Amino acid sequence: MKPAFLLPGLMLKDLLNLRPMGKTLLLMFFIFGIIFIPMGNIMTVYFLLMIFAALLPMTSLSMDDLAKWDRYALTMPVTRQEIVRSKYLLMLVFFVIAFLVSGTIAAVMMYLDPSNATPLWFMLLVAALGIFYGACLIPLLYKFGSEKARYLMFVLMIAAGVFLVGWFALFGESFTGDLLPFVLTLDAASIAAVVASYFVSVRIYEKKEF
Fold first, then answer.
1. 113-118 long-range contacts, Cβ below 8 Å, gap at least 24?
2. What are φ and ψ of residue 15, in 5° steps?
3. What integer pLDDT is reported at residue 105 of this predicted model?
4. Number of other CB atoms surrounding residue 101 within 10 Å
5. Confidence at residue 34, expressed as pLDDT on a 0 to 100 scale
6. What residue ranges are annotated as transmembrane (predicted)?
7. Is the pLDDT of residue 117 over 60?
8. Helix axes 42-67, 120-171, angle to 10 degrees
9. For residues 201 and 139, is the Cβ–Cβ distance under 8 A?
10. pLDDT of residue 40
């Protein structure tokens, strides 16, 4: 029988390895917050939060790849599916934290200046983009490795930024009820993309040799 702590243990290993990166991202977020929030450009802060939430699991994968950690992990009583699952659970944990932080910032801003409050629909839109970004990137990392996937990471990040710019170019900062089904559809699609991405990643990882 497998020890019940293996899956949480895999996530704990990633969290410990990501502590230096997490401190760097917190410092960057603090700097960006000081720059953008006084300018009233708080939406950029939400976008960065979601990107950071996606980057941390990707960094974990890159660190495992460079350290050849998978060779050691597969000698333990843990399946390849569980190794992949730990990465997706880690990603979802970071996205939940990012969304809660975004909600806290939005609540504080609404209290201080209701006219400059960020609507919930925008946070849902950015969350959908961030989750979809992570869902696309994890299989690419498993398929091509950290070095080759690094370039694809920036391409996907630029694509997400272009999408947001295009959104505001078409609709501005206003939001009507007609667009709500579209935003909710994007959120549902991003969740479906994570599920599909997990099975694709498992299939890729099962075929890899270390």
1. 116/40, 116/42, 118/42, 118/43, 118/46
2. -65, -40
3. 79
4. 16
5. 74
6. 21-39, 88-112, 118-142, 151-170, 182-205
7. yes
8. 110
9. yes
10. 62
Q: What is the mean pLDDT of residues 145-172?
A: 71
**What whole-number distance in Å separates Cα of residue 117 and Cα of residue 109?**
6
Quickly state the pLDDT bin for 7 (edges 50, 70, 90). Answer: low
The residue type of 155 is V
Closest Cα to residue 122, out of 84, 65, 86, 168? Answer: 168
Q: The tokens of 73 are what?
A: 């992990």
Neighbour tally for 157: CB within 10 Å: 17
